[in-house]
Amino acid sequence: QVQLVESGGGSVLAGGSLRLSCATNTFRAKNYRMGWFRQAPGKEREGVASIVTDGVTTVAESVKGRFTISRDNIKNILYLQMNNLKPQDTAMYFCAGRGDYYSHYVPSLDGSEYDYWGQGTQVTVSS
Prior knowledge:
Blueprint: E1 5-7, E2 10-13, E3 18-23, E4 31-39, E5 46-52, E6 57-59, E7 67-72, E8 77-82, E9 91-100, E10 116-117, E11 121-126
Parallel strand pairs: 2-11
Antiparallel strand pairs: 1-3, 3-8, 4-5, 4-9, 5-6, 7-8, 9-10, 9-11
């Protein structure tokens, strides 16, 4: 059973930084698409960043220049480095994945393009 476990959330002041991690030890696929999503209370889920097997990434316009997605393929950990955080970044952050041994994936911020989801980690940014 695939399990994705997020960590690294917390409370920070605006302008601060956090690095989220997503342990993906049970997600072992030759080809993959992994992503970070967030959902604030009363709002729809929003795709934040995505990365695929060959390292190609995409990030949402709202976080471009501030957030970076990466994956350590040896440790099987997905990261989201978040800099210059703003109060509007406050949300529950989720990691997600899809993978197999034969598909060629492109990054996607569409949640329907993912099969596995973590439980989330809360990020709160105060002004």
